[in-house]
Amino acid sequence: MSMHTPEAISGSPPATTMESFYFSAGDHDLFAWLHEPAGRQANLGVVVCKPFGFESLCGHLSLRKFAEAAAALGVPALRVDYLGTGDSPEIEPQADQIDIWTRDVVAAVAELRRRTGVERVCLVGVRLGALLAARAARELEGVAGLFVVAPVLNGKRYLTELRTTRLAALMGVPDVVADPRFGGDIEAANPGLMEFTGYPLSAASIATLTPLKITPADTPAGAQWSIVDRADLPLAKDFGASLAAAGVPTGYTALPGFVEMCLVSPQYSVVPLPMVQVLREFLQGLLGAAPLPAGGAERVPKSAIRGEGGAVVSLPGDSADSRLTERPVCFGTEAQLFGIVTEPAQGEANRRAVIFPNTGTDFHMGASRMYVTLARMWARRGYVVLRMDFAGIGDSNTRPGRPDNDLFPPAALDDLRAGLKFIRDRYGVQEVTLCGLCSGGYHSLRAAAAGLDVQRILMVNPQNFFWKEGSPPDEGWKVSEAVRNPGIYRQKVGSLRAWKRLLTGEVSLWRIARVYTLRALLSLELFLRDAARSLHIRLPQDLGWELEDITRRGIHVAFVFSAGELGISLLKLQAGSSLRRLGDRFRMHVIEGADHTFSRSAARSLMAKTLTQELTAGPAVSSTGDTANRSVGDSLRPKEFQLFTGMVHAESTSKNALQRTSSSEY
Question: What's the CATH number where 615 sits?
Answer without folding.
Answer: 3.40.50.1820
